Amino acid sequence: MIGGPDAVIASVMAPLLERLGSKAPHVDIGLVHLMPVQRGGSGEQPWQGSLEKLEKREIDVAMLPLSALPPRFEARRLYDEDFVVAMRKGHAFARSPTPSAYCTSPHILVSLSGDPHGFVDELLAKRGLKRRIALTVPTFMMALAHLSGSDLIAALPRRLVASQAARFGLASAELPFKRKPDPIQAVATRAAMLDDGIAWLMNVLVGSVAAWRRLKPST
Fold it and tell me: Most exposed: 63, 120, 141, 143, by fewest CB within 10 Å?
């Protein structure tokens, strides 16, 4: 069982399934959608629930945008991900992707809980800016579908937008402010990695993504 945000799953499943098809065609994979959850005022990191699923063995491996983990977990880097502004083709923002235009455009935010506040809002607040969240959706793929037929824009992972742009008729532009990429890591508990099957799955996942990156160095 592998868990992760649907944007990450969409980015890595093709190379993983290709490798499984050639090396272990009888292995079946289950996928679990994971998203950050901010537990009001607790100070817990937003991926704590996903780490708890690993510890309870509800999932075997999680693919998460985390750089630091408690020592009871083992992590292998898959790739670095940054965000772009996605929108339908012909959108006015693509012609003038300024901070002002960004803040005045209506936005989609991917939020499992429906909370209309994300990392972009925190970055904007530091600059004395804010935006209007016109719609929240629980998955990245749902955000793509709503962008294609509206004037909404959204900050979405670059790889997801690039892979789905033709399907949904989308364009993209750089974010109008600097942000460090997120390290996407395959994570399992150290206890789980003592299981030969989990260790094998981790190695196949990491290897398939590494081979994909070598074939597509620009992504």
Answer: 141
What are the structure tokens assigned to 123, written together? 């970055």
Nearest-Å Rg of the Cα atoms of the chain is 18
Query: Is the whole-model pTM more than 0.90?
Result: no
Identify the domain containing residue 167 by its residue range.
83-174
Q: Report the CATH number at residue 198.
A: 3.40.190.10
CA–CA gap between residue 4 and residue 184 (Å, rounded): 10
pLDDT band at 212 (very low <50, low <70, confident <90, very high): confident
Instruction: Give the closest residue to 175 by CA, choosing from 138, 131, 213.
Output: 131
Alpha-carbon gap, residue 67 to 75, rounded angstroms: 9
Q: Any bridge partners for residue 43, and if so which?
A: none
Tokens 């923002």 belong to residue: 93
Q: Which of 39, 189, 173, 17 is nearest to 112 (CA)?
A: 39
Domain total in the chain: 2
Per-residue pLDDT reduced to its tens digit, 102-132: 999 999 999 988 999 999 999 999 999 999 9
For helices 140-148 and 6-23, give the axis angle rounded to 10 degrees.
110
100 with 159, same domain: the answer is yes
| Lookup result for tokens 């235009």 | 101
